[in-house]
Structure formats: structure tokens, C-alpha cells
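Appendix B, record 7
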Amino acid sequence: MRRIAKKISCIVLTAALVAESLPGYVLAAEIQTEMSVTEQMEQVQTDQAQPKEEDGVLSENESVMSEGAVEVQPEEETVEEPPAEEIEEKVGRSVPQAGSRELLRDSFEDASGWKINQPNAVKIENGRAVIKGSGPNNAMASMGILAAENFLMQADLTVGAGNTNCNAKIAFKAKEGFEQQRLQLRFDFPHNKVMLENVTGNTVNTTYKEATVAVSEGVHKLTVEVQDDTITAWLDEQEMITAAHEEIAGMEQGRLLFAGQYPAQDFALDNLLVTTNEQPSGKECTVTLETYTDGVLDANHKGGTLTADRLSGYSGDYVTLTPKANHGYVFARYETNTDNLVPVENDRFQLSEKFPQITVRAYFETRIPGKDELFFEDFGGDLGGTLPGINISDGELVVDGSGGVGKFRKGRIQMLTVRKWIGRKSAAIKGIVFLWMPEERRTSQEPFRLLSVGEMTLRPVM
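C-alpha cells (predicted):
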């Protein structure tokens, strides 16, 4: 009888495993033969109705099954994952951190450091580099090269309301000139496209990649990374395009170039920063400053002083100079010991390993009043009186902007301020134009007669 009960219990277990899909870890040896057939069937049904929380997971002491036991494995649902490169294409990389070494920084307070081919369409003013107009190539190029193979460029890109039919070009590793070979990121605004290319002028040599990107009117964060043979660009911290090509790594160091093309261009760049993690290489360059007064070397700086933001660096680094004439003298010119092979333009020059020791000379001359000059003031002495909101400080006329001072008359001399906006907040008044208006012309429409431009800088106190 016991043998029969054991056979029946095995049959019941097998049927339960097949019909009811009992967990695979339930073993035939676990059936207690001392129980009646009815009790054993009730026990199996109770086990089915109350599954364990750890159902499907073997404990350590259940890892070895008894001989002849059959393990039933549940079917697993397989999910195909896209290749890693497809995931990267969809998600994109985060914007890298700025590099440890600064190659170029410009807030575009003036055009120093840049060459412009179309001054009517390209203007560097009010803290921005603006390209607005029409034509096949309105461009601005950096005077010096970026002294690194790999770098990160960051800037604010402003798209204006008039930017309705325009190609905007952000170019790098550009050869000297506005029509030479370069790598570039090109925004095709009418078609909502962006391209990475190798071009010469307006001729595309190689298109590395094209992507669909819609850029709205307003201010955007633009980042471009050049790393070995790969270029990647981000807009508002979202990767929009990346491409790799052996030509990219083969391009030599070059200049930055920003350009517009087509009949309705209206965009601007500001807050430009270019950095690299490459360490400077080659021989260190040193800078020596000298001042001359009326043609004679002047160690006492009688005519004025010359300072620089750095006196050493490596090839490709920029040096910014600041000449300041003393009262009664004017700054005349710069000279270097390089026979002008390292030119000083807009108070700035770039170091070159060809000239590891550069001497910069600033020439100051005694001021000679002009023939038709009615008034001149370099703010090196006493004003001879006081005016509300106006005072002299360290050779500068300081105007308190809160008092509304900016234009006033004194006798027949009219002082007109020439302002230059810094950023979007305050203005630095870069000069004063003095105009003479004879009595007989006061009611006429004839233009004023320009008599003198003062050598001064006015800065409102904000």
C-alpha cells in the first residue's frame, strides 16, 4: 500500500508541474509518503496557493539538486539594446569643462585683435561682435593664431530678428586671410541645418556631417570642441553635431574666423573664451618695455608710462599693452626690435618663438597745440573749477552718470560726449569732441566744424 501511495504521489507531482507550472525548485523528494494520498494532494494545492516571496531564487543550501530531479527554468524576455554608438548619438555628451590654459578671451569692447573685411556689415561694439547686412562674405578674423591643436571655444550666440536668410560660419584653424582654407561649423538658418565642413572661402572641400537643428531668435550658449580628429558642437548645452575625420587632425594651428553669407544676416557673438588643456611647449619668450620722451630713452618716464598684462609667455600667447601719457605729452607710436615682423596692432601683439626676446618701445612727445585748436585737456592737472558730478582722478575725468551729465555748453564751445557701451549696463565715454559754432551758424543747418579731439577717457560712476 505504501509503495502504491508513493507512485500516486509522484504522478500527482508530475501533473502539477506540467499543468500548473510549479516553481522549479520543488523536488519530488519533498513529498512526505507518510501522508495519505488525499492529504498529499491537499498539501500540493496549499503550496500552489501560497507562493514564497523568494519564488524562483535558490538559497545557498538548495544549490545542489538531488539526483534525477528536473529543474524548470522560466522563460526570460529578451530585450535588444541599441549599440553603444546609437545611445551616444541620441543622448550626447555633456559640455566639457573649460581647459586649464586660456588661449583667447574677448568681451568685444573694441576691435583690437581682429581684422574686418566689411566694416559696414561687421562691427565690434557695445560688447558684441555683430554681423548684420547682406553679401557673400562678411567676416572678421583673429589677428593671431590659437596656439594649440586641441581646444574648447565658448561664446554667446545672439540671433537677431533680421536673421531670416543667412549662413553663419564659426571657423577655426583658419589660414591667414578671409578666403583661405579652414574648418568650420556652419548654420544654415533657412533650412534648419548645421554642418561641419572643411572649406576654402565659400567652396566646401569636405562635408564631415550634417544635422537638423532649429535655432530660435534670442541668445544661445555655443560651445565647439576640437579634439584630435573630432569636432563636436553644443547649443544651449545640448550636443547638436559631432564628426570625426583624419583631415581634422591634419589641419595646422590657425586663426578664428566668424562670417556671414546671404542677403539677410543678423547675428552676434560675445563673451568669447577659448581654452586648452595642452601645456605650452617650446622656448619661453620674454618681453622688455621701454619708454622714450621726445626721441630719447627715458628711464624716469617723463613723457609717460608703458605697462603690459604679461612680460613672458609662449609662442601664440597675446600681450596687451597700455601706454599712458603724462600731462603735457601725447603718445605717438610703438616700435619693436623685430623690424615690425611682430606688429603691435590696437595695443596688442602675439609672442613668437622666432623672437624669444622682444623689446617694445613706447614713444611719447611733447604736445604741440594745433593751429585751429580752441581747447585741449588731458586731465593731468586742475580743472580750474568745479562742476556738479565731475572730478579728475588719476588722469581721467570721472562723470557721475546719476547726475545726467553728458553734454553742456561753455561759451561758444560745445562738448559732445562719445559713448561706448560696455556689456548691456554701463557706458565708458571714450572721448570728447569739441566743436566751434560761430554766431552766424547757430540757426543754420550746416554741420559743426570739428576743431579738436581730446586725449581722454571718461568713465561714468555707476
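Remarks on this record: The CA atoms of residues 141 and 309 lie 23 Å apart. The longest helix spans residues 2-20.
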